[in-house]
Amino acid sequence: MYVTLLQRYLLRNYPELKEHKLIFQQDNAPSHRYRGVSEWLEKKEIKKLQWPHQSPDLSLIECVWNELKYRLRGEVFKNKEELWKRLKKEWKLITPEFIEELYQSMPNRIAALNNAEGKQTKY
Questions:
Q1: Could you state, in order of their start, the residue ranges of all structural domains in the chain?
Q2: CB 3.0–4.6 Å: which of 2, 13, 48, 57 could bond 123 by disulfide?
Q3: 44: Cβ contacts below 8 Å, ≥ 6 apart
């Protein structure tokens, strides 16, 4: 399914990948490491950013999920719909400044990961 999504949308939305003006980044989740994905990216000559396998230290979306969990701590929901409604409300309150801070933390995250030789870090 992931290969199909890449085939349909990746180059259409990011033609700069074909021209080597961009480097493709994925977090090496199992679906990303599937041989068919690698073969397709190689066939299309798309450069990939080397990335540790499923590193939560470098996955900024994990920080956003943690922030959402923190904001909802202690709350009890009657059903999935109630939880979903609350999550959407909090998602909209995530500020661009919060996201910018996460991006600004990347050099420190990379250095911490290098220093920890791939083991757990404070992030």
A1: 2-43, 60-115
A2: 57
A3: 11, 17, 18
